[in-house]
Amino acid sequence: MKKYGFRQSNSDHTLFLKHNSDRVTCLILYVDDMIITGNDENEINKLTKGLFTEFEMKSLGNLKYFLRIEVMRSQQGIFICQKKYILDLLAEIGMIDCKPSETPMTMNQKLFIEDGAKSADKERYQRIVGQLMYLLHTRPDIAYVVGVVSQIMHDPQEAHMNAVLSIIRYLKRTLGHEVLFRSNGHLKIQVYTDADWARDKGNRRSTSRYFSVVGGNLVTLMSKTQKVVTLSSAEAELRTKGLTEALCIKKLMFEVGFSQKKAPSYPDFRKSCST
Q1: What gap in Å lies between CA 74 and CA 123, rounded to an integer?
Q2: What is the per-residue pLDDT for 91?
Q3: DSSP symbol at 68
Q4: Residue-level pLDDT at 275
Q5: In the chain, which ranges are continuous DSSP H helix?
Q6: Each residue of 110-129: pLDDT tens digit?
Q7: Which helix (H) or strand (E) holds 222?
Q8: Cβ contact 127:149 at 8 Å
Q9: CA gyration radius, the chain
Q10: Can you give the pTM of this predicted structure?
Q11: Residues 153, 12, 72, 142: what is their CA dihedral angle, to the nearest 10 degrees?
Q12: pLDDT, position 274
Protein backbone atom coordinates (compact mmCIF):
# COMPACT_ATOMS: atom_id res chain seq x y z
CA MET A 1 0.00 0.00 0.00
CA LYS A 2 2.90 2.35 0.69
CA LYS A 3 4.22 1.59 -2.79
CA TYR A 4 1.00 3.00 -4.25
CA GLY A 5 1.15 6.14 -2.10
CA PHE A 6 -1.19 5.07 0.71
CA ARG A 7 -0.54 5.64 4.38
CA GLN A 8 -1.70 3.56 7.29
CA SER A 9 -4.25 5.13 9.61
CA ASN A 10 -3.13 5.75 13.19
CA SER A 11 -6.70 5.25 14.43
CA ASP A 12 -7.25 1.91 12.70
CA HIS A 13 -4.22 -0.02 11.50
CA THR A 14 -6.33 -2.03 9.02
CA LEU A 15 -7.28 1.19 7.19
CA PHE A 16 -5.14 2.71 4.41
CA LEU A 17 -5.79 6.18 2.99
CA LYS A 18 -4.66 8.25 0.03
CA HIS A 19 -5.62 11.91 -0.41
CA ASN A 20 -5.54 13.75 -3.72
CA SER A 21 -6.71 17.35 -3.32
CA ASP A 22 -10.31 17.09 -2.10
CA ARG A 23 -10.60 13.42 -3.03
CA VAL A 24 -9.84 10.38 -0.87
CA THR A 25 -9.45 6.64 -1.47
CA CYS A 26 -9.84 4.17 1.38
CA LEU A 27 -8.93 0.50 1.69
CA ILE A 28 -9.87 -1.43 4.80
CA LEU A 29 -8.53 -4.93 5.27
CA TYR A 30 -9.68 -7.96 7.26
CA VAL A 31 -7.32 -10.95 6.86
CA ASP A 32 -7.69 -11.66 3.10
CA ASP A 33 -10.90 -9.68 2.49
CA MET A 34 -10.97 -5.98 1.74
CA ILE A 35 -13.24 -3.08 0.91
CA ILE A 36 -12.13 -0.27 -1.39
CA THR A 37 -14.15 2.95 -1.35
CA GLY A 38 -13.82 6.68 -1.83
CA ASN A 39 -14.69 9.48 -4.22
CA ASP A 40 -11.67 9.20 -6.52
CA GLU A 41 -12.66 6.79 -9.31
CA ASN A 42 -9.30 7.05 -11.09
CA GLU A 43 -7.35 6.18 -7.97
CA ILE A 44 -9.71 3.29 -7.15
CA ASN A 45 -9.21 1.82 -10.64
CA LYS A 46 -5.44 2.30 -10.38
CA LEU A 47 -5.31 0.60 -6.98
CA THR A 48 -7.49 -2.30 -8.14
CA LYS A 49 -5.26 -2.97 -11.15
CA GLY A 50 -2.18 -2.74 -8.96
CA LEU A 51 -3.54 -5.24 -6.46
CA PHE A 52 -4.46 -7.64 -9.28
CA THR A 53 -0.82 -7.43 -10.42
CA GLU A 54 0.58 -8.10 -6.95
CA PHE A 55 -1.86 -10.81 -5.78
CA GLU A 56 -4.23 -13.48 -7.03
CA MET A 57 -7.59 -11.88 -6.30
CA LYS A 58 -10.94 -10.99 -7.82
CA SER A 59 -13.34 -8.10 -7.64
CA LEU A 60 -16.89 -8.84 -6.47
CA GLY A 61 -18.25 -5.49 -7.62
CA ASN A 62 -20.35 -3.27 -5.37
CA LEU A 63 -20.36 -4.36 -1.74
CA LYS A 64 -23.23 -6.80 -1.08
CA TYR A 65 -21.96 -9.34 1.46
CA PHE A 66 -18.97 -8.94 3.76
CA LEU A 67 -18.06 -11.04 6.80
CA ARG A 68 -21.64 -12.40 7.00
CA ILE A 69 -23.10 -8.90 6.86
CA GLU A 70 -25.52 -8.16 4.02
CA VAL A 71 -25.40 -4.70 2.44
CA MET A 72 -28.29 -3.22 0.42
CA ARG A 73 -28.75 0.18 -1.17
CA SER A 74 -31.90 2.21 -1.78
CA GLN A 75 -32.97 5.83 -2.18
CA GLN A 76 -33.27 6.01 1.61
CA GLY A 77 -29.63 5.06 2.18
CA ILE A 78 -27.59 1.93 2.92
CA PHE A 79 -29.10 -0.96 4.88
CA ILE A 80 -27.06 -3.62 6.63
CA CYS A 81 -28.43 -6.81 8.19
CA GLN A 82 -27.51 -10.42 9.02
CA LYS A 83 -30.68 -12.24 7.99
CA LYS A 84 -28.83 -15.18 6.43
CA TYR A 85 -26.61 -15.45 9.50
CA ILE A 86 -29.68 -15.70 11.76
CA LEU A 87 -31.29 -18.35 9.53
CA ASP A 88 -28.07 -20.38 9.61
CA LEU A 89 -28.00 -20.05 13.42
CA LEU A 90 -31.62 -21.22 13.74
CA ALA A 91 -30.89 -24.23 11.52
CA GLU A 92 -27.68 -25.11 13.38
CA ILE A 93 -29.30 -25.28 16.82
CA GLY A 94 -32.49 -26.92 15.52
CA MET A 95 -34.85 -24.00 16.11
CA ILE A 96 -35.84 -23.16 12.54
CA ASP A 97 -39.46 -24.09 13.38
CA CYS A 98 -39.52 -22.59 16.88
CA LYS A 99 -42.33 -20.34 18.08
CA PRO A 100 -41.31 -16.66 17.72
CA SER A 101 -41.13 -14.39 20.76
CA GLU A 102 -42.20 -10.76 20.91
CA THR A 103 -39.39 -9.72 23.26
CA PRO A 104 -35.80 -10.97 23.69
CA MET A 105 -36.14 -11.22 27.47
CA THR A 106 -38.85 -11.06 30.13
CA MET A 107 -39.17 -7.56 31.51
CA ASN A 108 -37.10 -6.93 34.67
CA GLN A 109 -35.71 -10.47 34.53
CA LYS A 110 -32.64 -10.88 36.73
CA LEU A 111 -30.10 -13.57 35.90
CA PHE A 112 -27.62 -14.77 38.48
CA ILE A 113 -26.07 -18.06 39.59
CA GLU A 114 -28.31 -19.84 42.08
CA ASP A 115 -27.03 -22.43 44.54
CA GLY A 116 -28.20 -25.95 43.70
CA ALA A 117 -29.72 -25.01 40.31
CA LYS A 118 -29.35 -27.47 37.42
CA SER A 119 -26.42 -26.76 35.12
CA ALA A 120 -26.80 -26.30 31.36
CA ASP A 121 -24.57 -27.59 28.54
CA LYS A 122 -21.63 -25.22 28.99
CA GLU A 123 -20.10 -25.77 25.54
CA ARG A 124 -23.43 -25.27 23.73
CA TYR A 125 -24.23 -22.19 25.80
CA GLN A 126 -20.88 -20.56 25.07
CA ARG A 127 -21.12 -21.33 21.35
CA ILE A 128 -24.60 -19.81 21.00
CA VAL A 129 -23.76 -16.71 23.03
CA GLY A 130 -20.60 -16.23 20.96
CA GLN A 131 -22.70 -16.33 17.78
CA LEU A 132 -25.15 -13.84 19.28
CA MET A 133 -22.29 -11.48 20.07
CA TYR A 134 -21.36 -11.35 16.38
CA LEU A 135 -24.94 -10.32 15.61
CA LEU A 136 -24.50 -7.09 17.55
CA HIS A 137 -22.95 -5.47 14.46
CA THR A 138 -26.43 -5.10 13.00
CA ARG A 139 -28.77 -5.82 15.93
CA PRO A 140 -28.32 -3.17 18.63
CA ASP A 141 -31.80 -4.08 19.91
CA ILE A 142 -30.37 -7.24 21.52
CA ALA A 143 -27.13 -5.68 22.78
CA TYR A 144 -28.30 -5.38 26.36
CA VAL A 145 -29.73 -8.89 26.73
CA VAL A 146 -26.71 -10.48 25.04
CA GLY A 147 -24.52 -8.58 27.48
CA VAL A 148 -26.54 -10.04 30.35
CA VAL A 149 -26.29 -13.69 29.22
CA SER A 150 -22.60 -13.32 28.33
CA GLN A 151 -21.74 -12.58 31.97
CA ILE A 152 -22.51 -16.17 32.98
CA MET A 153 -20.37 -18.01 30.43
CA HIS A 154 -18.28 -19.78 33.07
CA ASP A 155 -21.15 -21.59 34.83
CA PRO A 156 -24.46 -21.45 32.90
CA GLN A 157 -27.60 -22.94 34.40
CA GLU A 158 -30.92 -23.95 32.86
CA ALA A 159 -32.49 -20.56 33.54
CA HIS A 160 -29.64 -18.91 31.65
CA MET A 161 -30.01 -21.28 28.69
CA ASN A 162 -33.74 -20.56 28.58
CA ALA A 163 -32.93 -16.85 28.44
CA VAL A 164 -30.58 -17.45 25.50
CA LEU A 165 -33.20 -19.48 23.64
CA SER A 166 -35.70 -16.67 24.24
CA ILE A 167 -33.34 -14.33 22.38
CA ILE A 168 -33.19 -16.85 19.51
CA ARG A 169 -37.00 -16.95 19.30
CA TYR A 170 -37.08 -13.15 19.23
CA LEU A 171 -34.58 -13.15 16.35
CA LYS A 172 -36.85 -15.42 14.34
CA ARG A 173 -39.68 -12.93 14.75
CA THR A 174 -37.49 -9.99 13.74
CA LEU A 175 -35.56 -11.43 10.80
CA GLY A 176 -36.25 -8.33 8.73
CA HIS A 177 -34.74 -5.85 11.18
CA GLU A 178 -31.97 -3.79 9.59
CA VAL A 179 -29.70 -0.86 10.40
CA LEU A 180 -30.05 2.15 8.11
CA PHE A 181 -27.23 4.56 7.28
CA ARG A 182 -28.49 7.68 5.54
CA SER A 183 -27.30 11.15 4.73
CA ASN A 184 -28.65 13.67 7.23
CA GLY A 185 -26.70 16.68 5.99
CA HIS A 186 -24.15 16.71 8.83
CA LEU A 187 -21.43 14.61 10.46
CA LYS A 188 -21.99 15.60 14.07
CA ILE A 189 -20.57 13.18 16.66
CA GLN A 190 -22.81 12.35 19.63
CA VAL A 191 -22.05 9.90 22.43
CA TYR A 192 -24.69 8.68 24.90
CA THR A 193 -23.49 7.14 28.16
CA ASP A 194 -25.37 5.49 31.01
CA ALA A 195 -24.80 3.10 33.90
CA ASP A 196 -26.84 1.19 36.43
CA TRP A 197 -25.78 0.81 40.04
CA ALA A 198 -25.01 -2.56 41.62
CA ARG A 199 -27.40 -4.39 39.32
CA ASP A 200 -25.63 -7.75 39.43
CA LYS A 201 -26.92 -9.69 42.44
CA GLY A 202 -23.93 -12.02 42.33
CA ASN A 203 -21.10 -9.51 42.72
CA ARG A 204 -22.96 -6.16 43.13
CA ARG A 205 -21.05 -4.59 40.25
CA SER A 206 -22.45 -1.87 38.01
CA THR A 207 -22.78 -2.00 34.23
CA SER A 208 -21.54 0.90 32.09
CA ARG A 209 -22.72 1.38 28.52
CA TYR A 210 -22.48 3.87 25.69
CA PHE A 211 -23.31 4.22 22.03
CA SER A 212 -22.02 6.71 19.47
CA VAL A 213 -23.84 8.39 16.61
CA VAL A 214 -22.16 10.08 13.63
CA GLY A 215 -24.27 12.15 11.29
CA GLY A 216 -27.42 10.76 12.90
CA ASN A 217 -26.34 7.13 12.29
CA LEU A 218 -25.43 4.54 14.91
CA VAL A 219 -21.73 3.65 14.70
CA THR A 220 -20.65 1.86 17.87
CA LEU A 221 -22.19 0.53 21.06
CA MET A 222 -20.80 -1.09 24.21
CA SER A 223 -22.11 -2.53 27.45
CA LYS A 224 -19.65 -3.81 30.06
CA THR A 225 -19.62 -4.72 33.73
CA GLN A 226 -17.31 -2.50 35.75
CA LYS A 227 -14.26 -4.20 37.23
CA VAL A 228 -14.77 -2.87 40.75
CA VAL A 229 -17.74 -2.56 43.08
CA THR A 230 -18.98 1.04 43.05
CA LEU A 231 -20.07 2.38 46.43
CA SER A 232 -22.49 4.96 45.03
CA SER A 233 -24.49 5.67 41.89
CA ALA A 234 -22.17 8.64 41.21
CA GLU A 235 -19.18 6.30 40.94
CA ALA A 236 -21.11 4.11 38.53
CA GLU A 237 -21.81 7.07 36.21
CA LEU A 238 -18.34 6.98 34.63
CA ARG A 239 -18.13 8.61 31.20
CA THR A 240 -14.49 7.86 30.44
CA LYS A 241 -15.26 5.10 27.94
CA GLY A 242 -17.71 7.28 26.02
CA LEU A 243 -15.25 10.18 25.92
CA THR A 244 -12.47 7.89 24.67
CA GLU A 245 -14.74 6.55 21.93
CA ALA A 246 -15.71 10.07 20.84
CA LEU A 247 -12.07 11.15 20.59
CA CYS A 248 -11.17 8.03 18.56
CA ILE A 249 -14.01 8.66 16.10
CA LYS A 250 -13.05 12.33 15.81
CA LYS A 251 -9.43 11.40 15.07
CA LEU A 252 -10.46 8.79 12.49
CA MET A 253 -12.77 11.21 10.69
CA PHE A 254 -10.01 13.82 10.60
CA GLU A 255 -7.66 11.31 8.97
CA VAL A 256 -10.28 10.44 6.35
CA GLY A 257 -10.80 14.13 5.63
CA PHE A 258 -13.85 15.15 7.65
CA SER A 259 -12.74 17.64 10.29
CA GLN A 260 -15.07 18.46 13.17
CA LYS A 261 -15.77 22.16 13.72
CA LYS A 262 -17.44 21.49 17.07
CA ALA A 263 -16.50 19.19 19.91
CA PRO A 264 -18.47 15.91 20.24
CA SER A 265 -21.59 16.25 22.38
CA TYR A 266 -22.74 14.06 25.27
CA PRO A 267 -26.55 14.31 25.54
CA ASP A 268 -28.23 13.00 28.66
CA PHE A 269 -29.11 9.38 27.79
CA ARG A 270 -32.13 9.04 30.07
CA LYS A 271 -33.53 12.44 29.13
CA SER A 272 -33.23 11.57 25.44
CA CYS A 273 -34.97 8.27 25.99
CA SER A 274 -37.85 9.92 27.82
CA THR A 275 -38.44 12.32 24.96
Answers
A1: 41
A2: 96
A3: T
A4: 30
A5: 41-54, 83-92, 122-135, 143-149, 158-173, 233-236, 240-256, 269-274
A6: 777 777 888 899 999 999 99
A7: strand 217-225
A8: no
A9: 22
A10: 0.81
A11: 20
A12: 33
